[in-house]
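Q: Give me the 3D complex with guanosine-5'-triphosphate.
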Amino acid sequence: MFKSMLTKLKESLQKTKKQLSESFSAISFGRKIDEELFEDIEMVLLKADVGLKATEEIIDFLKEESKRRKIKDGEELRELLKEKLYEILKKCEGSLNLGNEKPAVVLFIGINGSGKTTTIGKFATQFVQEGKSVVLAAADTFRAAAIDQLEVWAERSGARIVKHSHGADPSAVVYDAVNSAKSRSDDIVLIDTAGRLHTKEHLMKELQKIKRTVKKLMPDQPVETILVLDGTIGQNSINQAKTFKEATDVTGIVITKLDGTAKGGAIIPICEELCIPIKFIGVGEGIEDLQPFDAKAFVDALFD
Ligand SMILES: Nc1nc2c(ncn2[C@@H]2O[C@H](COP(=O)(O)OP(=O)(O)OP(=O)(O)O)[C@@H](O)[C@H]2O)c(=O)[nH]1
Ligand SMILES: [Mg+2]
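A: Here is the predicted complex, encoded as structure tokens.
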């Protein structure tokens, strides 16, 4: 990872760092290791949005390993915590699956305002900079301003946009986008969809229809399906994600808005409970503020 990216990551995780590793140090440094200390650490982890299940697992690990390695004080426990978080998060790294044909198809889904369109804009910019030809499919035909918003991103990034009018069938837009990209041998189609509550069944069905549409045109091509989760809502995104996962095959996660939230610790239960690769993270509103998720860089940024 480039140095500038690491700096940005550190900056954006400041609040989470305070909530997680700095609170940990504050209560554990200079203390002897006993049951009372573990109870205090448990509180710190829970407050940092690490969640009940992951917290229990981490505490068990700290107890066992501190005994086994004959660790005597809180400072050394910090290294153990780092080690455990890395072990958990490492399992969730993953890169985009763009398949072997042209175009690659990436579908973005998630609840209202989670950051889908912005994330698409960031991806489009990065792909165009790599010399790829990118098509944006304006399949959010529900919200009036959504098509205009995507159009701005198309201009900014240098991607081509395929759009229909407000209220059109999203699958029809997707059909046109993928079909035209296929005939022009474009590299990638990024599909923007309307924000939807995971509890609305007909909206979830719509996602399945979009996928079937792609599959009809490109039966052998994977549809990389990215669930965009808002990092500022912390653990609340887990239940949301579970319902999306039930409705459709989610193949990757992007967690946005990790800058400016203290709830970034939720990435740990998101990783543990969903078992879906976290492929990228959003660390700001700018074009360049999308980074591949790198477990080591993430843990280092939280602790160093
Ligand atoms: N700070 C910060 N803001 C972000 C990030 N990603 C998105 N945003 C902001 O979040 C807000 C919503 O982003 P959109 O991309 O419009 O979200 P959406 O999921 O497309 O929203 P709907 O189409 O209404 O469902 C915007 O103000 C974005 O600038 C991020 O990583 N960091
Ligand atoms: Mg949008």
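A quick observation: The CA atoms of residues 24 and 44 lie 6 Å apart.
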